[in-house]
Amino acid sequence: MTRYPVINEADRFEFLPREEKISSVLCWRKRVDSFAPQIGRNTDVEISREEDKNYVSYSSALQIIAQSLEWIDACAPVIRSFIQRVTSQIIVQRDHTRTEYYGLSSYNNPGSIRIVNSELLGQSFCVVASAVIHESIHQYLFLLEQAYGYFLSPNLFYSEKKVQSPWTGSVIYCNNICHAAAVWYGLFHYWGTVNECLYGDERSIAETQRIKIQSGFSGEHYQTLLSMFSAHDERFAVTLLTHLHHQMIRGDLVQ
User: Fold this and answer.
1) Phi, psi of 32 (to 5 degrees)
2) CA–CA distance, 174 with 104 (Å, rounded to integer)
3) What average pLDDT does the segment 232-251 reach?
4) What pTM was computed for the model?
5) Rounded to an integer, what distance in angstroms lies between the CA atom of residue 187 and that of residue 192?
6) Local structure of 21: helix, strand or coil
């Protein structure tokens, strides 16, 4: 009788193609550490602030982020586990030159994310949580790139070429598109995962976000990006964008 080796979840993850390493984690069905123990660090997340004498509201900003993490833990422990796995530090920062919220992650500073002008996000835990998740997904993608290589070839990765984001309409560097597609895919599933914890206006926010994200994946700009990457023979970018598009359609049919 032939005996076949037992393949555990970690081995299955290792053999998955990169696009499935992204989609299988960011649909939030399983804890990432249950099948990808080599990804990340699994430490407590430190929330701190950048020194700024003019940032008088930093304590409330720290509090709302801490409360939002507690809210995720209650509503979607799989997502909270993911954040803890890939993010070790959340730095709250105030940018007095800008009048909008934005987040920052760096390939060269793994595990650390910056939430800038977070008070402009309001007091809703689900919205603040989405900002933390957004940057944490970037951290996960950085870990994948460190382990398996960049998503684009050097020619395009280091180029100054810019394209329009299908999800926000903003003009961004084309080397950010693979990250953006994965982030928005993860956020689409985040809003669906926490829907049962939302009430009133928050449910409207979730529905609006899911419609916007879905429109980005199914719109003209997305197909234009696929054509552009195909013309540059960026095989993984084409594979990833095609895979996420198909997953969105498939998810649409089963939801």
Assistant:
1) -60, -35
2) 17
3) 92
4) 0.90
5) 9
6) helix
